[in-house]
């Protein structure tokens, strides 16, 4: 890996840890409301650090890293959740800032290089199951197009969900049949059916939500109540825009991805679809990020996540991506109040965000579970589905279970390790 990508990821990891240490921005949505409690002296540093670790470490080990191994691109949770922990555990003051920056930078470089070392290590195993591991994400590439339909059904009811489903299916088949356009004898333009179907679903989702009008002022009330906390975000604009620029540059360098869906699409070089997914996902996060920012005075290092879609569109141009991402984060901070007030006029759009996030999680949970079963079956035909089913159900009985999203990748990785151990001791022979 060249020096520029390593420098980008090191700076990103270091700055994210610093933002967490100073209570300016954290990635974990659950940690964000806890930070002002610490800043106002209601809880101590030990309580903040313990909370950060409890909320984030399991997701790093059980979700971020396993999903990243399956696609060879870093799921951003693997970095940002750990920098939340590093920043929270680092001491107060200048010494803590220096420690947080150095530790965050080292960790970010380590996770990028370490992922490649893990992939290289697979080649040394008696049974290399890396190619089978890639199957974990294969259902995601097609399955993600259904999430607007699920979001519509959750928000507007079953009937409109059925309408959206039929429109999506018809769109898919029409593009599949007529989406190959001949430009000349040597050149043809192929329109991707998944991307167009997703776009159709998102348009329907916005149309249905936009019809719900309202005269409430929930966000405006929050702004009036927590104006001093919003000012805390604005006064740290420089650090936030630099971090946002680095997030965009790292995405443009294909180092990180915002979510497992776009990660899998990027690994398949389906860049248009990946940018659409990131854009649709960011729509769901605008109300959440802005509302929690107003209430807590703590932002997210990736803002509303719009910069991930921007980074994909500017792939291969990290310097331009850095500048563009910095501008976007600056505009987000500048328009924080105006956007929040605007959402009051369209409560359907505001509520749509929650349904988008829930539907994406549900789609991911199912598709990664199916993909995990496919990968397990490819690793060990005949016992793969047994292992996947058993591990998933056993996890649900655990006192400290992994999140369901992680079980597909975890099942495939653990089965691959198990068959290698059994092969070495002579119990298992691949057919």
Automatic annotation (TrEMBL):
- Keywords assigned by UniProt, alphabetized: Membrane, Transmembrane, Transmembrane helix
Which Pfam families does the UniProt record give? Answer: YhfT
Mind telling me which residue stretches traverse the membrane in this protein? 53-80, 92-119, 125-146, 158-175, 195-212, 237-258, 278-299, 306-331, 366-394, 406-428
Q: InterPro entries from the xrefs?
A: Uncharacterised_YhfT
Is-annotated flag, keyword Membrane?
A: yes
Q: Which domain of life is it from?
A: Bacteria
Q: What name does this protein carry?
A: Transport system permease protein
Q: Which organism is it from?
A: Entomospira nematocerorum
């Amino acid at each position: 890996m060249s020096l520029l990508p390593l420098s980008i990821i090191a700076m990103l990891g270091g700055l994210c840890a610093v933002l967490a240490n100073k209570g300016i921005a954290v990635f974990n949505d659950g940690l964000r409301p806890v930070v002002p409690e610490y800043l106002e002296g209601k809880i101590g540093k030990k309580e903040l650090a313990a909370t950060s670790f409890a909320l984030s470490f399991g997701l790093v080990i059980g979700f971020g890293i396993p999903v990243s191994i399956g696609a060879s691109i870093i799921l951003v949770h693997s970095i940002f959740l750990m920098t939340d922990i590093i920043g929270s555990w680092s001491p107060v003051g200048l010494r803590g800032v220096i420690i947080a920056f150095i530790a965050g930078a080292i960790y970010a470089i380590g996770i990028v290089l370490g992922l490649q070392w893990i992939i290289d290590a697979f080649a040394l195993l008696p049974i290399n199951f890396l190619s089978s591991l890639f199957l974990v994400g294969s259902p995601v590439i097609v399955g993600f197009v259904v999430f607007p339909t699920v979001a519509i059904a959750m928000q507007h009811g079953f009937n409109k969900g059925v309408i959206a489903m039929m429109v999506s299916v018809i769109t898919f088949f029409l593009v599949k049949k007529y989406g190959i356009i001949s430009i000349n004898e040597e050149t043809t333009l192929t329109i991707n059916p998944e991307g167009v179907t997703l776009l159709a679903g998102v348009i329907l989702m916005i149309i249905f939500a936009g019809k719900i009008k309202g005269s409430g002022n929930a966000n405006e009330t929050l702004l009036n109540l927590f104006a001093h906390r919003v000012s805390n975000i604005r006064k740290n604009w420089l650090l936030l825009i630099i971090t946002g620029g680095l997030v965009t540059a790292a995405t443009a360098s294909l180092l990180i991805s915002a979510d497992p869906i776009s990660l899998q699409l990027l690994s398949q070089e389906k860049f248009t679809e990946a940018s659409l997914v990131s854009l649709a996902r960011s729509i769901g996060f605008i109300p959440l990020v802005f509302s929690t920012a107003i209430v807590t005075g703590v932002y997210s290092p990736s803002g509303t996540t719009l910069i991930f879609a921007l980074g994909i569109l500017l792939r291969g141009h990290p310097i331009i991506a850095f500048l563009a991402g910095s501008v976007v984060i600056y505009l987000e901070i500048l328009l924080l109040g105006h956007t929040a007030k605007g959402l009051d006029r369209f409560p359907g759009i505001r509520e749509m965000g929650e349904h988008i996030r829930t539907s994406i999680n549900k789609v991911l949970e199912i598709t990664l579970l199916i993909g995990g079963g496919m990968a397990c079956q490819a690793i060990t035909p005949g016992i793969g589905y047994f292992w996947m089913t058993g591990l998933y159900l056993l996890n649900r009985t655990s006192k400290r279970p992994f999140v369901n999203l992680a079980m597909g990748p975890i099942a495939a990785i653990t089965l691959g390790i198990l068959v290698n151990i059994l092969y070495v001791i002579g119990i298992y022979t691949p057919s």
